[in-house]
Design a protein that fits this description.
Layout: H1 5-11, E1 18-21, E2 25-29, E3 37-43, H2 58-74, E4 82-85, H3 89-92, E5 101-105
Antiparallel strand pairs: 1-2, 2-3, 3-5, 4-5
Bound molecules: guanosine-5'-monophosphate and zinc ion.
Guanosine-5'-monophosphate (5GP) binds next to loops.
Length: about 110
């Protein structure tokens, strides 16, 4: 997707504070962090929203969570805890239409979310 900001971070066309990558997954720190640790885990392949998930994407979606928990451990918040959130469309709070798992930690999270 040529006009997708996260595809541009994947391709290196715009910079990102990248903390992990493999063949299918990229993780980078959020530009506007909402917690002392806030990073995003994205598939390198463009998928717009959760609504676009296909059965063949199941393994890739699992890999987002595996990356999230490995990075959370590296960041030293596996025991204290952290929150993983994936927003979908307007009322879900999604502003970038390339799916991304938010991982937030190093502060107390509240419930219900805003
Ligand atoms: P959403 O609202 O779609 O769930 O989350 C989008 C997130 O992407 C926001 O937390 C926002 O701060 C982050 N973001 C938007 N543009 C950029 C960017 O260019 N670089 C990085 N690192 N994060 C971005
Ligand atoms: Zn994209």
């Amino acid at each position: 997707m040529t006009d997708c900001i996260f595809c541009k971070i994947v391709s290196g066309d715009i910079p990102g504070d990248i903390i992990y990558q493999d063949d299918e997954v990229l993780a980078f720190r959020d530009l506007n962090p909402q917690a002392p640790v806030h990073f995003l885990v994205v598939p390198k392949r463009h998928i717009s929203t959760i609504n676009d998930f296909q059965p063949d994407d199941a393994e890739l979606i699992g890999k987002l969570y595996l990356a999230a928990k490995n990075i959370a451990k590296q960041e030293g918040m596996d025991e204290s805890g952290y929150r993983c959130v994936m927003n979908c469309n307007d009322e879900g709070g999604q502003t970038v239409h390339h799916i991304h798992l938010h991982v937030l930690g190093k502060r107390q999270m509240n419930w219900p979310p805003g």
